[in-house]
């Protein structure tokens, strides 16, 4: 019999196992991973660099980056937040660096650094690991659990930490449902927008540093860098917006209008004044040939074309109706969105184990003693930028302290 069985060989599972072992070295710990690969999301995160966390060392501010789970994490971050994680990695010889946008990576710029550290720590603490061991059923009997894998293997455990991550397939949660834990429907979060018409596809690769994107007819909007792709719109502004609007967009079946201001959340009258002043100051200058507001030339040309401004037109000759159209396309450029693109390797779910059934001080089930949860299996998800990993580290740490702290 194992003292602790961790179900899931990803970020939360490994971190939880390591923390339990460090706090109570006497415990026999087993990690069960359903595939033949460990830490697969860690491997691909941040383009293979592993966006470990975000440079935000204030618990309250950090929690505001979570569309689901903010209240819970605001409390948990008082126990274990990004600064604690950075210090832990440093204590193990892995230094992290913060980039301009706040994302934090190992200074090696390689996710393998993180993976190697976790594997070393697991080996140091004699954590047993079994691959290709998908769990099909958990039975709670007096004093322990019996875990059955899909291959028919049976394993006994005194305590269980479930850290299977998020899954697009609701069936992945069946063994949790069977224990009486309700699952909030798993739906995608963190995705890009597919444009129905490819009017901007020739501008693939063009980016602006501070766009303001909102979903027409809703309360949802976000500001930040935006990237035009061959399929539509991407970049942090769009991906963050997709997280906050995940449930709404699912209900809309991903058919909606996105309105883009290419210059941030600027007031219409301010922009109109700016354009009229420029027209007055540079009457002989070609409109199309001289981009304003630091916009890329190719994008400015496209916006002028949409405003029906001829290539040789100078500002002095620009009719007010064309100026109004230009203003509209700078501030409210409409994209008809039909569908999304989700990157399967980095799939993030909105949904999972309902938080009402969890003791949020310990991450233990309120229904079944000695059953704990950590990471994205819970209905917790954050914006892009290292926030989802931080939620995994924090919930795993809190669960581990509770698991290891009890007399077993």
Question: What share of the residues does DSSP label as strand, in percent?
Answer: 25-35%
What CATH architecture of the largest domain do you see? 3-Layer(bba) Sandwich
Mean pLDDT: 96
The beta-strand count equals 20
Coarse shape = elongated
Which percent range fits the helix content?
Answer: 25-40%
Helix count? 13
The fold-level CATH name of the largest domain is FAD/NAD(P)-binding domain
Distance between the termini: 12 Å
CATH superfamily of the largest domain: FAD/NAD(P)-binding domain
- The CATH class of the largest domain is Alpha Beta
Our count of domains comes out at 2
The low-confidence runs, each spanning 5 or more residues with pLDDT under 50, are: none
Counting helices, strands and paired strands, the structural category is alpha+beta
Over all CA atoms, what is the radius of gyration?
Answer: 25 Å
Main sheet, how many strands, which sense, barrel? 7 strands, mixed
Provide keyphrases for this structure.
408 residues, FAD/NAD(P)-binding domain, 2 domains, six-stranded antiparallel β-barrel
């Amino acid at each position: 019999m194992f003292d602790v069985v961790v179900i899931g060989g990803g970020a939360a599972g490994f971190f939880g196992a390591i923390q339990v072992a460090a706090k109570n070295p006497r415990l026999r710990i087993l990690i069960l991973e359903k595939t033949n690969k460990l830490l697969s999301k860690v491997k691909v995160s941040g383009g293979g660099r592993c966006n470990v966390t975000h440079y935000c060392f204030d618990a309250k501010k950090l929690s505001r980056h979570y569309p689901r789970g903010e209240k819970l994490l605001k409390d948990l971050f008082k126990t274990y937040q990004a600064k604690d994680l950075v210090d832990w990695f440093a204590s193990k010889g892995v230094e992290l660096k913060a980039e301009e946008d706040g994302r934090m990576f190992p200074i090696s710029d390689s996710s393998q650094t993180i993976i190697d550290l976790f594997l070393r720590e697991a080996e140091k603490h004699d954590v047993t690991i079994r691959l290709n061991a998908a769990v099909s059923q958990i039975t709670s009997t007096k004093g322990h659990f019996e875990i059955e894998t899909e291959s028919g293997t049976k394993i006994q455990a005194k305590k269980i930490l479930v850290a299977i991550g998020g899954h697009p397939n609701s069936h992945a949660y069946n063994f949790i449902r069977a224990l009486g834990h309700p699952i909030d429907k798993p739906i995608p979060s963190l995705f890009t927008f597919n444009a129905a018409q490819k009017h901007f596809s020739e501008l693939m690769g063009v980016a602006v540093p501070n766009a303001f994107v909102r979903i027409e007819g809703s309360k949802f909007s976000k500001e930040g860098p935006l990237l035009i792709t061959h399929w539509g719109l991407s970049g942090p502004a769009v991906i963050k917006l997709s997280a906050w609007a995940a449930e709404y967009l699912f209900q809309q079946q991903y058919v909606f209008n996105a309105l883009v201001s290419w210059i941030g959340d600027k007031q219409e009258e301010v922009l109109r004044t700016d354009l009229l002043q420029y027209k007055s100051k540079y009457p002989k200058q070609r409109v199309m040939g001289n981009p304003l507001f630091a916009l890329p030339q190719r994008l400015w040309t496209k916006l002028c074309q949409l405003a029906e401004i001829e290539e040789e037109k100078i500002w002095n000759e620009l009719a007010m109706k064309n100026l109004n159209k230009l203003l509209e396309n700078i501030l409210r450029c409409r994209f008809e969105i039909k569908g999304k693109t989700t990157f399967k390797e980095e799939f993030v779910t909105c949904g999972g184990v309902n938080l009402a059934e969890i003791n949020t001080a310990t991450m233990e089930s309120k229904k079944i003693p000695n059953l704990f949860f950590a990471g994205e299996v819970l209905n917790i998800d954050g914006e892009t930028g290292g926030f989802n990993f931080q939620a995994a580290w924090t919930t795993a740490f809190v669960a581990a302290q509770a698991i290891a702290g009890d007399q077993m």
